[in-house]
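re: the backbone from monday

yeah here it is again, tokenized this time
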């Protein structure tokens, strides 16, 4: 709802009772962030990382940050790749990723050096950019897993000989199941999620229409904006 069918901005929504998860114990602010964090938790669970796996998350928006948080909680060594240095600084200071790399012409060489030329056991793309999604195939280690959280209308292509040589596992991830929601609630209640830092903007409902265009600007520095009644 709100993606494949209309209804995301409805005043009232009717859904099956089994699809509703109780937000017991968390604040309203925290409950408003559970959904995007669950998308990240689901992507990490799909990848099935082992402790100490090298995990690259491409894209440091809210979904990417969720992936980083839960990749760390699963014991991974996490590297963040993004075009914006301010987002990478946030990943380092607030999420505690192990390495950050600015996207650009020399990013592949930097990623190679970080892994002694082996690249990453798990690569997760959360950019929403077809070019970045295609580049990600080059960052997967032999026997590694590539998870595409991003959804784009474009056709994604890759070099088949390289794909087969590395025996890459390719996965799509777009859902969140009750198991993922419960994992997020547990992580929040244990203090493992920097929810206060993730909220960068807050407005009243009446101010929201005027605020949306401003939030779209990279200069606004939006991570997550909350709308209050």
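seq for it, each position gets an aa:
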């Amino acid at each position: 709802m709100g993606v494949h069918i209309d209804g995301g901005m409805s005043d009232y929504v009717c859904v099956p009772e089994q699809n509703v998860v109780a937000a017991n114990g968390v604040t309203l602010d925290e409950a408003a962030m559970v959904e995007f964090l669950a998308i990240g938790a689901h992507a990490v669970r799909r990848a099935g990382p082992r402790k100490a796996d090298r995990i690259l998350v491409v894209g440091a928006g809210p979904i990417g940050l969720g992936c980083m948080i839960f990749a760390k909680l699963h014991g991974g060594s996490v590297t963040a790749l993004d075009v914006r240095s301010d987002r990478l600084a946030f990943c380092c200071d607030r999420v505690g990723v192990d390495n950050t790399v600015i996207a650009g012409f020399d990013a592949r060489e930097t990623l190679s050096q970080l892994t002694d030329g082996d690249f990453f056991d798990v690569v997760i793309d959360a950019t929403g950019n077809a070019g970045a999604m295609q580049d990600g195939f080059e960052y997967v280690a032999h026997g590694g897993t590539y998870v595409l959280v991003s959804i784009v209308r474009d056709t994604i292509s890759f070099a088949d000989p390289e794909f087969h040589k590395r025996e890459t596992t390719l996965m799509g991830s777009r859902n969140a199941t009750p198991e993922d929601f419960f994992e997020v609630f547990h992580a929040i209640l244990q203090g493992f999620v920097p929810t206060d830092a993730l909220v960068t903007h807050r407005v009243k409902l009446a101010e929201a229409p005027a605020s949306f265009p401003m939030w779209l600007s990279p200069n606004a520095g939006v991570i997550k904006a909350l709308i209050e009644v």
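The first helix runs from residue 28 to 31. The CA atoms of residues 170 and 225 lie 32 Å apart.
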